[in-house]
Design goal:
This protein is mainly beta. Helix content is about 0%, strand content about 35%.
């Protein structure tokens, strides 16, 4: 079973994000796995790598 990320606050609150890939990226840029539409978030804000 793949790990699941769950949004806690804001627009992603309650949203479940499956981590089917080994790399999950977060940020405002459309190329990220999880796009966060907030000016307080950078274009490439964070990355989770499953090993």
């Amino acid at each position: 079973m793949a790990p699941v990320l769950v949004g806690r606050d804001g627009l992603l609150a309650g949203e479940r994000i499956l981590t089917v890939d080994t790399r999950v990226t977060f940020g405002r840029n459309a190329g990220n796995t999880v796009v966060i539409a907030s000016l307080s978030v950078s274009r490439f804000h964070a990355e989770i790598v499953l090993v």
